[in-house]
């Protein structure tokens, strides 16, 4: 008799065939959906065999349901099997159902135990079948501990992730991206392979940290689409692992990418999503509120902007004296810079001279610079310093100090790392000065410095 495929298996085959894909292409699509972009022939072939078994209904693709749903753009609930029902028990020769679960064979005894949850099993029957469950328990234990994760793997991954975080402000973004990308793929392979449930969670956390770093590096390299995609990947892996703080870090990256690429509404949404995940008294919770504040300013919503800054300042007052670590880095300077540096940009974007926005922006920018200069050298961020100097220069340009603004902008460009966010702010400064003071020599010098310091991708 022909094997009857369940509805979920038929749906898998129908969705694939409607797209004109073979099983090999389906395998590549599934691997892509979980973040793997390289497709060795042996791995694709092995997964294609699994897909054929999925579509014939022999094996339910428990570990691949989310990937299938993502590829087909359908809710994963549509691929879930119906609740199981207990089939009638048959005799060993395939004849009529047995009238008694008390047969002496091991198959009958195991079947009786499986039916125990649905039908009454007498103490006598239970006493006979219990000895057979010892072997089953041993097999379940063996499977639960089956793993391909080598000794020291997590120690190695942690050292790599910490090193990448420390080098973010020092090494060229392209070099760091290559390293992080290589390790992210290796973690994806480990997730696919044999691992325990506990190891799976740790691997998801490692994947999330690496994706979060890739998001920031793609942002520095001027690739917003890749940056947002990696930030989303970081969020979802962290969420699967139950790591709320890491979810909030991913949202922080999403918000920054959106702000610098003129999508303030998306930035507000990302920041608020992060606020919901961030620990209550953590500098990151302050930082995310100021992210939302400057995004509201970009939208021209002064009231919402001021409210978010008020919440950030109130929370800042409640932070513990000892700031928590981000991996191995101190987060103590995160909140003070957010309240000053992000306020600078907010008031520049609100831009109402009568309400003193540019004057307030200048004051906040100087406070941000002073706060950075007061930090130990190892804790200072060249990117933040450059941004604060350029923002100060923009405020000066609006306040009628063009030569000071041009000189400050040129200094920031010649000393800052060549990253896209700095270039974009320098472009804003150049636009303001060029519109108002095009003929000044200092403005022409700034234009030349801007051209010579474009970041390389």
UniProtKB/TrEMBL annotation:
Instruction: Spell out the residue ranges making up region: Disordered.
Output: 76-110
Organism of this sequence? Actinomadura keratinilytica
SUPFAM superfamilies, from UniProt? TPR-like
Biased composition of type Polar residues is found at 87-101
InterPro entries reported for this sequence: TPR-like_helical_dom_sf (IPR011990)
> Highest taxon of the source?
Bacteria
Q: What is this protein called?
A: XRE family transcriptional regulator
């Amino acid at each position: 008799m022909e094997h009857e495929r369940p509805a979920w298996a038929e749906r898998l085959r129908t969705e694939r065939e409607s797209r004109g894909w073979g099983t090999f292409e389906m395998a590549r699509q599934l691997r892509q959906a979980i973040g793997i972009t390289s497709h060795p022939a042996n791995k694709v072939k092995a997964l294609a065999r699994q897909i054929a078994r999925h579509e014939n209904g022999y094996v339910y693709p428990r570990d691949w349901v989310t990937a299938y749903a993502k590829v087909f753009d359908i809710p994963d609930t549509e691929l879930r099997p119906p609740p199981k029902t207990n089939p009638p028990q048959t005799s060993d020769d395939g004849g009529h159902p047995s009238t008694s679960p008390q047969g002496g064979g091991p198959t009958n005894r195991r079947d009786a135990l499986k039916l125990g949850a649905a039908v009454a099993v007498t103490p006598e029957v239970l006493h006979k079948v219990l000895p057979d469950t010892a072997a089953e328990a041993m097999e379940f234990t063996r499977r639960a501990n089956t793993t391909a994760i080598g000794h020291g793997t997590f120690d190695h991954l942690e050292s790599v992730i910490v090193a990448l975080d420390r080098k973010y402000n020092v090494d060229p973004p392209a070099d760091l991206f290559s390293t992080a990308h290589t390790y992210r793929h290796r973690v994806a392979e480990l997730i696919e392979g044999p691992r325990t449930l506990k190891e799976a969670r740790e691997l998801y956390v490692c994947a999330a940290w690496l994706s979060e770093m890739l998001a920031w590096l793609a942002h520095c390299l001027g690739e917003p689409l890749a940056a947002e995609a990696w930030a989303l990947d970081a969020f979802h892996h962290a969420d699967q692992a139950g790591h709320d703080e890491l979810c909030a870090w991913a949202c922080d990256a999403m918000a920054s990418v959106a702000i610098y690429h003129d999508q303030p509404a998306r930035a507000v949404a990302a920041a608020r999503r992060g606020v919901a995940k961030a620990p209550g008294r953590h500098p990151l919770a302050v930082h995310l509120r100021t992210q939302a504040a400057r995004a509201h300013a970009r939208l021209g919503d002064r009231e919402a902007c001021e409210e978010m800054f008020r919440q950030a300042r109130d929370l800042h007052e409640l932070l513990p004296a000892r700031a928590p670590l981000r991996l191995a880095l101190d987060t103590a300077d995160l909140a003070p810079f957010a309240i000053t540096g992000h306020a600078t940009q907010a008031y520049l974007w609100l831009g109402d001279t009568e309400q003193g926005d540019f004057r307030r922006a200048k004051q906040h920018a100087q406070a941000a610079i002073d706060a950075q200069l007061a930090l130990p050298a190892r804790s200072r961020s060249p990117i933040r310093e450059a941004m604060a100097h350029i923002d100060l220069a923009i405020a000066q340009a609006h306040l009628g100090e063009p030569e000071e603004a041009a000189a400050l902008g040129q200094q920031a460009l010649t000393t800052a790392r060549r990253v896209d966010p700095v270039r974009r702010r320098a472009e804003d400064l150049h636009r303001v000065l060029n519109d108002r003071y095009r003929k000044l020599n200092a403005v022409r010098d700034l234009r030349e410095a801007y051209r010579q310091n474009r970041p390389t991708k």
